[in-house]
Design brief:
about 50% helix
Length: about 150
């Protein structure tokens, strides 16, 4: 327990927190974020639903006939693989961990992915990118726990 008796002691404590933050590395938290996103996108493709849990539009009968199955957003597995497999050539995984900013970029470079995400004249919108609200809440809790654990070391 910390006791603060003066304004000077309070400012000293705050300066210590800022110093601790400037030394903190978020690499483990960012890696956890990648794992959560990869898992969530794997589930999303299995459930054929958007980040809010809404099912994707069904395939047209002509598409089912051409593909030989009714699985949405699955032709070769390239799009799904780019989001589930970190080593996939089309996966986008970038992170930075330098004070005062840390963050990550997660996505796919599969060219037709954006057309499925946004839809088009003859293509229904089937959004697949993003983090569900409950997952974002969970990641926020992990982030808070991580920061507190790092600060009390």
């Amino acid at each position: 327990m910390v006791t603060i008796n003066t304004q000077s002691e309070f400012y000293s404590l705050l300066q210590g927190v800022v110093t601790d933050f400037s030394r903190m590395r978020f690499e483990p938290l960012l890696e956890r974020g990648f794992r959560m996103l990869e898992e969530e996108h794997g589930v999303r493709f299995a459930l054929e639903s958007d980040p809010d849990g809404n099912p994707w539009q069904p395939l047209a009968p002509s598409t089912i006939k051409r593909k030989g199955h009714a699985i949405r957003l699955l032709e070769t597995g390239r799009l799904r693989g780019s989001l589930r497999d970190r080593a996939h050539a089309d996966g986008i995984r970038e992170k930075w961990d330098e004070w005062p900013k840390a963050g990550l970029i997660f996505g796919t470079s599969v060219p037709y992915g954006m057309f499925h995400e946004t839809g088009g004249p003859n293509l229904p919108k089937r959004p697949f990118m993003g983090m569900a609200e409950h997952s974002l809440d969970l990641f926020t809790e992990h982030a808070a726990d991580y920061v507190l654990a790092e600060l009390v070391q």
